[in-house]
Amino acid sequence: MKALITGASSGIGRDMAYYLASLGHDLILVARRKERLEEIKKNVAVNVKIIELDLLKEENVFALYEKVKKENIDILINNAGFGLFGMFTKTDLSRELEMIDLNIKTYHILTKLFLTDFVKKDKGYILNVCSSAGFLAGPRLNTYYATKNYITKLTLAIYEELKHQNSKVHISALCPGPVKTEFNEVARGVFNIKEMPSEKVAKMGIDKMFQKKLIIVPGWSVKLGLFLNRFIPWKLSLKITYFIQKRKYPNEE
Q1: Residues sharing a CB contact under 8 Å with residue 157, sequence separation 6 or more, in sequence order
Q2: Rounded CA separation 4/72 (Å)
Q3: Active-site residue among 125, 144, 145, 150?
Q4: Is 69 a residue of the active site?
Q5: Using CA of residue 220, residue 133, residue 201, residue 181, what is the dihedral sign?
Q6: Is 232 exposed, middle or buried (0-12, 13-18, 19+ CB in 10 A)?
Q7: Is 148 an active-site residue?
Q8: Confidence category of residue 218, pLDDT binned at 50, 70, 90
Q9: Catalytic one among 107, 125, 145, 148?
Q10: Is 98 exposed, middle or buried (0-12, 13-18, 19+ CB in 10 A)?
Q11: 103 close to 81: Cβ distance less than 8 angstroms
Q12: CA dihedral of 84, 205, 24, 82, whole degrees rounded to 10
């Protein structure tokens, strides 16, 4: 099998590449940092194609599909994305619009194009790297939470459509809590609760995808938190999330 992974140069994407390679799957790795992709290629024993590309640009997303559509891809992993801490009135609008482009439009376009191909073949897997944020509203990390809500709910809806079509194509949403990656550095904040190793999240995401799980939530504490959130009022949930995020970015008011 052959997997295409976006955002493959670090974190969950990188660790998914290594894990899939250990299972014998060939790889197409996409990211801006070519040297990091070259390092992965050097350290695995499968065929690896490297594509250096900035997926913030919509035309590059379509160009990526055109470049690989004849590669007989079996697995699409949408992983590229970033966050931005801060109050909505103070965060940079241009950066937020870039986040929307990458976290939503890129996922949407690639899911649409590859899903259409997979349905025609009646086989294939799509794994959208979402977040536990996809089930919540996130004061002080507002746009990021909103983007993850979009992709999580889109994934759930597509799953149900495939089910009613009796399709053998499967789509999953990987929804971790805090993960030890470069997210904090890019988002300019700090997590105050324990972060899961990205290797563990990557392995669980791949394993559960192959088991055809719809929602994949690594870690019992995150699962418990999402479960309990169903039973508390929205305003209380917002207040709790606000103060959790405030602890990540304590100097901002």
Answers
A1: none
A2: 10
A3: 144
A4: no
A5: negative
A6: exposed
A7: yes
A8: confident
A9: 148
A10: middle
A11: yes
A12: -10
The identity of residue 55, as a single letter, is L
For the chain, count helices (H), then strands (E).
Answer: 10, 9
Q: What is the pLDDT of residue 161?
A: 98
Nearest to 53 by CA among 76, 33, 75, 78: 33
Q: How crowded is residue 197: how many other Cβ atoms within 10 Å of its Cβ?
A: 13
- Tens of pLDDT, residues 39-62: 999 999 999 999 999 999 999 999
Closest CA to 12 of 171, 152, 197: 197
Contact 28, 73 (CB under 8 A): yes
223 vs 87, more confident:
87
Three-state DSSP state, 162: helix
Residues 6+ apart with CB under 8 A from 231: none
Q: How far is CA 247 from the centre of its chain?
A: 24
Tally of CB atoms within 10 A around 11: 20
Look at the block and give the residue holding tokens 């799953």. Answer: 159
Determine the Cα–Cα distance for residues 105 and 25; give it in Å rounded to an integer: 27
Half-sphere CA count of 53, side-chain side, radius 13 A: 25
CA distance 147 to 133: 9
Tokens standing for residue 46: 């499968």
Taking the C-alpha atoms of residue 204 and residue 201, their distance in angstroms, rounded to an integer, is: 5
pLDDT tens, 64-98? 999 999 999 999 999 999 999 988 999 999 999 99
Q: How confident is the model over 124-164, as pLDDT tens digits?
A: 999 999 988 888 878 889 999 999 999 999 999 999 999 99
Mean pLDDT of the chain: 89
